[in-house]
Each structure stands twice: as C-alpha cells, then as structure tokens.
C-alpha cells in the first residue's frame, strides 16, 4: 500500500543526497576498501567530534555496541545491571547474553528512567546502569552520573535513539563511560543496512572494543583474546559520512514537523504529546490507541504500533516478576506518527487533521 503519509521514505532520502552517496560508494569499490578501511576511520573521527568524545569505534549494530561495551567494562556472570523495560529488547538481551542479571526499574510519565528508583535496587552485585534515551529525549544524566559515581558503577548510555540530543550543552553518549549508537536505516542517522558505534573518552575502553570487534586480533597475526566479528563495514561508513553532514538540518526539519503536530493536537484532551530534543520518533500517547491507529492506516497515514506487550511481560523471557505499572500503562497508549525528514508540511497537517477527526467524531457519537 502506498501511504499518503509514509512512516519513512528511503528512496526520497537517497535522491536528496544521491550524487554524494553514489560517489562515496563508488570510491569504496574503486579503492577496494571494504573492511576497517579509511572511510571507517574518517567516520569514527567525525562521529566523535560531533558527539564530543575522544573516541568512536564502529561496530556491526547498536546491539553489538551495547554488548561489546559490557564486555569491555568487564561485566560478567552474576553481576547486576540496572535498566528499563521501556526500550527495544536488545538493551535487556545483551545483559542476559553476557551472563549478567538485568534489574528493571520503572520509567516516569515522560517514558524515561525514573532515576529516583535506582538506589532502591542497589546491592553489592550491582555493577552498571544502562539509561535509555528514548525517541530523541534524554534521561537525567546529571543525577544518573552522580548516583553512579557515589556507588562506583559504570554507566553505558543506550543512545541508539538519542543521537544529536543535548543536555546542558553536552550531547547524548558523552556523559557515561560509554555511549552506544545504532545506524539502522530508520534511525535519524541511518546506514543502508545495519551499523552501530560506541563512543567514549576512555582510551582503554576504545582499544578493548577495537580488539573485541575484530576477533580479538591486535594485528593480522596476533590474537590476544577471544572476540567477535562485528565491524562497521567501509561502505556503510562512507554513506554515514555523507549523511552526518546533513544531520543537524535533518534534526531541525523534524523539530519543525513536530511543532506542527504539537500545535494542531494540543487541544485534544485524549492525547499526550511528546517532549524531545531531536524527534527521532514522534511518540503520541492516545486514548483508544488501537482504534486510532486503525483509523489512520485506513486514511493513508502510516503509523507504527510496535509494542503491544511490554518487554517484561513477554512470555519466555523470565522477567514477569518486575512490577512496572507506568511502563505497562505507556505500552497500552503509545504509537509512533510519521516524522521523517522527507515529509512535507502538508502531509503532517493531513495526519494531524485525521487525528482530530477521529476524536471529534467519537465525541459527537458519545454526545448524541
């Protein structure tokens, strides 16, 4: 189905940068640089400069960035890591897959980690906190870092949805011991496939992730530990280098589109509007969410209702014992509206109009 308001528009995004992307990809083929090449080194430098850290290390995806960060910090079996259920499941799975125990705390109504709950679950086994910056909005990093320093804990920022967001003049990913990013195509800085990166100010952590991403090899002939195969390939890095130049203007475009949504929907009492720095996603919390989503899809607005069951209630994961009432409430209400940089303003006005029509019609029926 061709939507009047698509959730993403990859062909249009490509056309917007086509000459530069074509040249970048062609250069990789002509130079024969595909793995751990010059484009990757250049992108790592550019990303670190953008985020405001000393180092960036490209890896295969955002999940790998989180996993390798845990490995590099020495998190192991029996350790406990505090994070949230209100996230993509990878944030939790990497903790389990490394042998540690995820300790899930609730979020606040803004969908971000409730920092006041951290100290309630601390014990001698706690080794790290993974705050999740969601949909372009940042957790309270000042409080999180204060708690971490006081209790000698590592902080791994899951900034996979937070690239470009700022707090007190510092960008997401630059606060913790490590910051992790995803370059999935739907992200605000997306590759033409999977990709990810860690950023850090700690040279030892950066060097350790470099070893781990390349099978534990210190050189072509020397293997110093068991590692993995998780490199950001040179083709993706070349594309990301092009797109990174447009990131700031893409964020500004998203802010303008979000402003339209906010102005058009602010008087609807049945919805709660998001607060974000970059609008990686525009997450609307809505009464009668499923009926609204059905209405919008029928009217040609491609909305996304991704989470029907919160992570800690998913069968088979062994997380049902966590009591997270706000997370569960948010899961019942939230949906993502289209806000990609390629949208035209009239498309956003159209989507907002259809939301208003839905609630107006329901009010009329209830009043008659």
UniProtKB/TrEMBL annotation:
Catalytic residues (positions): 187
Matching Gene3D superfamilies: Aspartate Aminotransferase, domain 1, Type I PLP-dependent aspartate aminotransferase-like (Major domain)
Any Pfam family: DegT_DnrJ_EryC1
Gene Ontology annotations of biological process type: polysaccharide biosynthetic process
Chain ranges passing through the membrane: none
Chain positions found as N6-(pyridoxal phosphate)lysine: 187
Xref: CDD domains: AHBA_syn
Annotated GO MF terms: pyridoxal phosphate binding; transaminase activity
Keyword Iron among UniProt keywords: no
Keywords: Pyridoxal phosphate
Keyword Phosphoprotein: no
InterPro entries on file: DegT/StrS_aminotransferase, PyrdxlP-dep_Trfase, PyrdxlP-dep_Trfase_major, PyrdxlP-dep_Trfase_small
Record-stated family: Belongs to the DegT/DnrJ/EryC1 family.
Name of this protein: Transcriptional regulator
């Amino acid at each position: 189905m061709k939507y009047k308001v698509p959730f993403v528009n990859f062909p249009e995004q490509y056309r917007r940068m086509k000459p530069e992307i074509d040249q970048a990809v062609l250069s990789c083929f002509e130079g024969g640089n595909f793995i751990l090449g010059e484009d990757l080194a250049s992108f790592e430098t550019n990303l670190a400069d953008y985020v405001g850290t000393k180092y960036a290390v490209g890896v295969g995806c955002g999940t790998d960035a989180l996993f390798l960060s845990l490995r590099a910090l020495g998190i192991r079996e029996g350790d406990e890591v505090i994070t949230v259920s209100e996230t993509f499941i990878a944030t939790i799975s990497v903790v389990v897959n490394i042998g540690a125990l995820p300790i899930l705390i609730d979020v606040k109504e803004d969908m971000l980690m409730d920092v006041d709950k951290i100290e309630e679950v601390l014990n001698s086994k706690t080794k790290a906190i993974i705050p999740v910056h969601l949909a372009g909005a940042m957790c309270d990093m000042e409080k999180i870092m204060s708690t971490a320093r006081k209790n000698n804990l590592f902080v791994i920022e899951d900034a996979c949805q937070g690239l470009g967001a700022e707090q007190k003049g510092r960008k997401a990913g630059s606060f913790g011991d490590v910051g992790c990013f995803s370059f999935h195509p739907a992200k605000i800085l997306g590759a033409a496939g999977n990709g990810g990166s860690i950023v850090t100010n700690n040279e030892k952590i950066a060097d350790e992730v470099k070893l781990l991403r390349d099978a534990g090899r210190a050189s072509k002939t020397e293997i110093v530990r068991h590692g993995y195969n998780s490199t950001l390939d040179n083709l993706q890095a070349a594309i990301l280098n092009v797109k990174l130049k447009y990131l700031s203007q893409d964020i500004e475009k998203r802010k303008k589109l979000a402003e339209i949504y906010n102005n058009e929907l602010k008087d609807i009492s049945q919805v709660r509007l998001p607060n974000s720095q970059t609008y990686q996603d525009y997450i609307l919390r809505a009464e009668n969410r499923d009926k609204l989503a059905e209405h919008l899809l029928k009217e040609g607005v491609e909305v996304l209702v991704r989470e029907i069951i919160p992570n800690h209630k998913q069968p088979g994961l062994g997380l049902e014992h966590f009591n997270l009432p706000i997370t569960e409430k948010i899961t019942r209400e939230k949906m993502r509206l289209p806000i990609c940089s390629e949208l035209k303003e009239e498309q956003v006005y159209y989507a907002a109009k259809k939301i208003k029509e839905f609630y107006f019609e329901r009010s009329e029926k209830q009043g008659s």
